[in-house]
Amino acid sequence: MDPKYNNNRQLIEKLKDEDRENNSYEDSDKREHKEKMMKYLFKIAIFTAILVVVLFVLSMFSSKSRGYADIEKIMKNAAIKYYKENASDLPKINGGIVEISAQKLSNLKYMKDLDKYSKKSSCSGKVVVENNDDSYIYIPYLDCGDDYKTTELFRKITDSSNIVSTGSGLYYYGNQYIFRGDDVNNYVSINNNLWRVVKVSSNNEVMLIKEDRAKKESYTWDDRYNAQKEMNYGINDFNISRLKSSLDDILDNSIDEGLFKKSDKEHIVAHSYCIGKRGVNDSSVDNSLECNMETEKLKLGLLTASDFMLASLDGGCNNTVSVSCQNYNYLVNDEINWWLITASNSNSYSVYSVSSSGYIEEGRASSRKKIRPVIYLNSKTMYKSGDGTIDSPYLIK
């Protein structure tokens, strides 16, 4: 046989063997790849099944066991929708109140029964609507027994556990609750601005003063021509003062400048501010002198001299300009000089301010100081969270 033929045959057989070997490797790779894909798809299927179960559980929890704040929001939105369609039922006069039960809202198909939202508790509820200068405030009240109950801010502040008779804290004084001393937990945060609770009035309105100045600018109390001095020393009548106009401007621009949100502003109630004059040696701290004269109802005001003096626990704080009034007094702010609303009775141009040293000074109205605005929160302003400390200030709904 031709040797060349044998060599070619051997070569062909060798190539066939190599081809079979390669096919074997390829088949092995395909099997391995297929197995990996099957494992990968199996893992995806398991993960998808778990995700579906989790979403289902969360959906059930959301629909059957909503948080109390969520339920309050549902009640509020239902009431808003109801009164939008029944506007004639809204209170017409300022301060007027109407209310509607959650059961009625449910019966009229504006919301579900309360037990559909929470299986944990048996709850009842209502929504109170108040006319606040023709702006309607909707306040949901939810009562779930021991588990949860809607609470007004004033109730949280005046809880019996907060009342003291000595040292720094909250005092019951003259039918009002007054904070006194330098170590008091009376911080409130509104739109990320810190305020301090000065007092809770006899009708449960919460009086706040801004912790720092409203804006960077300084303001004159008044800079009009004063006939007594024959110079622009100002006139110490708050009702016609530049200071009153400045407060009106701050209120008008408060939303744009971040002092309040629109929803926050709805909680501010218009209030009369005491503007009676007092002398430097007057010792009264109960506003009996200042409240001999009052402003029209305003939504932004300032502290009186009595308010500042009463916050001090120092017994030496016994007259208007006593240096001792800076002691044990949370109202002291050592960074700014700021205006009080009170004027001096010694002449027609002198007014009072608090120095950065922390005591009240008498000076001419035409000088320039910072403004620390004062507001009153409606008695139906709801507590959200916090304990009044600087690290956890009270938050409102």
Radius of gyration, Cα only, in angstroms? 35 Å
Report the total helices: 7
Shape: elongated
- Counting helices, strands and paired strands, the structural category is alpha+beta
- Uncertain regions: pLDDT < 50 for 5+ in a row? 56-65
Distance between the termini: 106 Å
Q: Give the SSE string.
A: HHEHEEHEEEEEEHHEEHEEEEEEE
Strand content: 15-25%
Query: Would you report the number of β strands?
Result: 18
Mean pLDDT: 89
Main sheet summary:
8 strands, mixed
- Percent of residues in helices comes to 25-40%
What does the model show?
By secondary structure, this protein is of the alpha+beta class. It has seven helices and 18 strands. Strands 4, 5, 6, 7, 8, 16, 17 and 18 form an eight-stranded mixed β-sheet that branches. Strands 1-2-3 form a three-stranded antiparallel β-sheet. A three-stranded antiparallel β-sheet has the order 12-13-14, with no helix packed on it. Strand 7 and strand 8 form a beta hairpin. It starts with a helix and ends with a strand. Residues 56-65 have low confidence and may be disordered.
